[in-house]
Amino acid sequence: MHLDTDSFEQLVTDELDQLPDEMVDGLDNVVFVVEDRPEDGSLDLLGLYDGVALTERGAYGFGEMPDRIILYREPLLAICETEAELRDEIHVTLVHEIAHFYGIDDDRLHELGWA
Fold this sequence. Notes:
Layout: H1 5-18, H2 21-24, E1 30-35, E2 47-50, E3 67-72, H3 73-78, H4 83-101, H5 106-112
Parallel strand pairs: 1-3
Antiparallel strand pairs: 2-3
Helix pairs in contact: 1-4
């Protein structure tokens, strides 16, 4: 599947808008970023939470760089054949990475069906 960056970013925005308010209202100092691929160039990673989970934060105040939730366009496109599949994968990836922000690890995400 092929989709240009602007169209992909619009899908990400659309899927963010579909998430429950309870999930996104607590996202403080977090930015969402779309990159083509992870730094290693692989197609294995769909998304990444880059920051310090709420459960691990000590003193947190002013001046910290925002946490980032990164979605990787090319790996997501590589595993999808239709726009509906892509929307589903973007949705799952967003939930997965937002869960890491809240301190939920991969084992628990797997138990919940999000990994």
